[in-house]
Amino acid sequence: MIDLRSDTVTQPTPEMRQAMFVAEVGDDVYRDDPTVNELERYAAEILGKEAALFVPSGHMGNQLAVMTHTRRGDEAIAGEISHVYAHEVGAAAALSGVTLHTIPFHNGMFNVEQILSAIHSDDIHETPTTLILLENALSNGRVVPIETMMSIYDLAQSKGIKVHVDGARFFNAAAALGVSVAEMARYCDSVMCCLSKGLCAPVGSILAGTKDFIEKARKNRKMLGGGMRQAGFLAAAGIVALRDMTGRLPEDHRNARYLAGRLSEIPGLTVDLDAVQINMVFFRLEWPKELLASLPERLLGKGIRINGLEDGNGRFVTHHGMGKEDIDTVVAGLKVVAESF
Ligand SMILES: Cc1ncc(COP(=O)(O)O)c(C=O)c1O
Question: Closest ligand 1 atom to the C-alpha of 56?
């Protein structure tokens, strides 16, 4: 099966399975799990932060950041298409009592002036803005330039506001920018990055920041029921993800550009090649409605799995285990469907 739905479908590598098999474990709520402790130490070192916390999901990592950086009644600024706003089930409001003030993007990107104008004053009527929620890479597949991260962080610091980065694909962003994740993480107070997705670990994400912030986040994780016991089995795969899998992400990015180029051959399909910056290809398919509706099922019959297309807009994601020959199979499959109508 060629699965283009997401990089969340990746499988743990043989090295991960072996590391999980032999992992030394303990009760992590007592801080007794040597493998979790090593993952947290190693992740903090790579990200250039004082401390890190292993969390079950990216969603929980983001929400712990919201909860830990803010007080109930505060406001956080977020992009209108950000995961934390659009795909985390309203958790910022439900769990932390935080209002998300969403801002639109200009040309698919954060804009510093817009963030500035979204920050509230000290006026007695206004909600205190205490957090900016960035994303890098963005959910639209674009990468926020380091200069933009710097300007936003400068602005935030001048106003006493914290910055958290949803870095579900932080390593993809770093690879695309040609910088280290530590360089990127200099321009935020906390960062969440996923070990699953493109890095292929089966479960888990990292939240990193100052020691004090991580201790508070650890307590909040316990409050949410996220204190794990012998989590070293999962952390072992996470260590392999950080050690062995970050260096190969440019291959996924090259494959995405190859896929984007080949998709342009399909009649009725348009793809914005400039927007292909990591492992995601967004495209528009001007095909009859019935054909669009039946496309996932038709491709499934050819061993290709895709998400449904919303109003003709689609997204394909490249990842470990998908090569150029798979992409050629996908393009051939799409051409057959296009001709059959
Ligand atoms: C940008 C972004 N942030 C956060 C998440 C949440 O990660 P998880 O699925 O591990 O909760 C995702 C998941 O796809 C994501 O794409």
Answer: 10
Which of 133, 169, 197, 279 should be mutated for ligand 1, with most atoms under 8 A from CB? Answer: 197
- Indicate the residue among 227, 245, 263 that finishes a domain: 245
Burial class of residue 339 (count of CB atoms within 10 Å of its CB; 0-12, 13-18, 19+):
exposed
Global pTM?
0.97
Task: Please tell me what DSSP assigns to residue 176.
Answer: H
Residues 132 and 268 in one domain: no
- Domain of residue 288 covers 248-340
CA 5 to ligand 1 centroid distance, Å: 14
pLDDT tens-digit readout, 249-296: 999 999 999 999 999 999 999 999 999 999 999 999 999 999 999 999
Pocket probe for ligand 1: among 9, 82, 194, 277, the residue whose CB has the most ligand atoms within 8 Å is: 194
Q: Residue 124 C-alpha to ligand 1 middle, in angstroms?
A: 36
CA dist 276 and 96 (Å) reads 35
pLDDT of 341 higher than 80: no
List the CATH number of the domain containing 83.
3.40.640.10
- My answer on whether 210 and 319 are in the same domain is no
